[in-house]
Every structure is written in C-alpha cells, then in structure tokens.
Write a structure and sequence with these properties.
The chain is mainly α and 391 residues long. It has 14 helices and 3 strands. The two termini are 27 Å apart. The relative contact order is 0.13.
Length: 391
Amino acid sequence: RRFPDCAFGRTELEPMEPNVFWSAVSMVVVILYLGIPWFTKKFRPRLRPLLSTISADGEKTVRTIQRFSHFLLDYFFTLLSTLVSVEFYVSMLPFLCWLGLHDFFPYELNMMGLAMYFGNALKDHLCVPRPSNVRRIAVFAEHNKEYGTPSTHTMSGICMVLSWFLFYSPRTVPILQPPMAAGCVMFCFLVMYSRLYLGMHTLLDITFGAIFGVWLTLSWTAVSPFVIDWLLNGGWSVPVLQCIGCFLLINLYPTPMRPTPSINYVVYFFGSCWGGNEGMREPFGADLQYMRDHIWADGFGWGLVGYAVARLVVGLCIVLSMRAIIRPVTKTSAIALFKLLGLKYKQTDGDGKVTGDGVFNVDTWSRFWTFAGVGWGTVVPSGYAFKYLGI
C-alpha cells in the first residue's frame, strides 16, 4: 500500500465492522433519497411549508442577535464565513497536498466533495428560503441566490475541523487532545453564530447543517479507509467508475424550484476529487516523496514557512493557468462537436439558469473537466515544478 495512513495508520484493511457497514448504508440511503426524483416530488410539497414556517419563526432570534452589532464584528464574521466558503477550499485543499500531507489530502478532498453534494442537494431538494426580514451581509453575492436549509457553511466547517481532529488527535500526545477538541468546538460555534449574525441563516438552517456535518464526518471516517484504498490503489477501472458515478450524481441532482448556483459547487468539487485522486494514483512516487520530505526536512521553522509560501505562489500559478486554459477549450470543443453532429445541447450560466433543450450540458462537462485538471495539476505538474525549483 502506497498510502497506509489514509486508513488511519492501518497497514492492512481489517474486515468490515458493523459501524462501517451502517455508515455506508446511511450514505447510500441519503444518496438514493436525493437522487431519485420521485422522493423530491413526493416530500418537497410536504416538508417545504413546514420548514419554511419554522425558519420564518427563527428570524426573531436572528434579529435579537443583530441588535448587538458593530462594524468590527461585521468584518470578523465576514472573514470567518470566508474561511468556510467554497472559495477558501479551492485554495486550502491544494495547499494540503503542497505541504506534503498526502495521507490527509485525499481523505479531506473526497469528504469535502461529499459535503458539497449532500449540503447543496438538500438545499435544492427542500427549497427553504433564506431569512428575509433581517439585515443580511453576504460574503459573496451568489450566496444570496441559494436556498437556506441546511447551512452548507456550517456543514462544511464542522466537516473540516472535526475531520482534522479525528485524523490527527490519535497522532498527538494525549495532553494536547483536550485543547484541540476545545478549539474545534469554539471554531464551530463561531461559524454557526456568524451565519446568524450575518443574516444568512436561521437556527433551523444551522441545526440541520450541524447534524448533517457530524453525521457525514463520522460516516466518512468509518468508510474512508476502504474507499480511499480503492481509489488510490485500485485497477484501471477505478477512474472510469468514479467518473461515471460523478456524472450520474450530477444528472440526478434535485431540480430546484428556481435556478440556483448550488449545483455548480458540486460539479467543481466532483471534478477536483477526480483529478486529485488521479494525480495521487499516478506512478510519481518519487515526486510525492520529495514534496513531503523536502519541506519537512528541518521540522518547524522559518524554512518551512518560506517553502510553504513559495509552493503556494507557484502552485496557484500552475492551477489557475490550467483552469484558464482548460475551461474555454473544453466548452468550445464540445459545442463545435455537437454542431458538427447536428445534435442539441444546453448550457447553464453561473446562476444555474439553463438555456437550450438538449440532454447534454456543455457547461457541466466543461466545469467538471476544468476542475479535474485543477485537481490533477495540484499533484503532478506542481510536484514536478517544486522539484525543479528546489522548493
């Protein structure tokens, strides 16, 4: 096994335990519930009015919290919300790889992909509106166009810090584990409070987000040794099956009552997961070893900081260049091919509005392969560049 620590330190996979089995079953059940259109048609008309009423009643709590406002708190909670946004993860997840944390990187990358899918699919399945009669401070304008329940900032923030704690606490001395746990709890509390303070969510939204965040992290932690071992060490069919699974989930994504940009985040992360996994699967072990050993050769210190900053600058230049090149090439080539064959196609703008009446969505195709290139570029081209530059 090339990455034994992805299995939480196990050099061999043990027989499947009951908690692993039921974790896998629970994730499959939720995927089927969100992916089968019959469930959306059957349960949305019943759940949406009830949850919308509860959410509207929760606006009183939001207004009470916003009475104690200050412009410094506005900046602080805006910054905190940015730290658990999609835009942050696009930079943070590659940085884990560039720091040589190749055991934690695939674990965290694939979990955040699942978090984006479950959180945004639930939003567009339930279609519960965001609070309206409150002061709202949106970090990014696109967030105003999404539905409210569950809070994906809460869900992804809990997934991020709880997974970090579960992964690294067994590797630390026992005396440091209580402070780590306290820090994780405080961070999660501040993220949830920030969503109320900024007027983006109600108590219902953050409660759903917290419940699903804890459930997903614990479930993924249980099944991840088996899944990651298959993704990174499996045969040639693994990338094909993973690609088919991604496009299947994307095409079975719940249709919201109005266009939203939520599905775009799912496509971004699914593409990044596919590309990152393929980069880790490539037979470039020497480069991965260099990425890990060179930066940590002198332990913690200014040398580590210097290498980390240099890798961040070089790595971002590489992945952003690949993103700028791949996106127009894939979209233009797909449109040209369909026009040549005389087939219909459709397109989706940044807000989720669909134009055209074809079955094939060229924007979904383009976004997926663009971020697949970004995920792959995070590992392979970046690894070669770091080795060539000696950083």
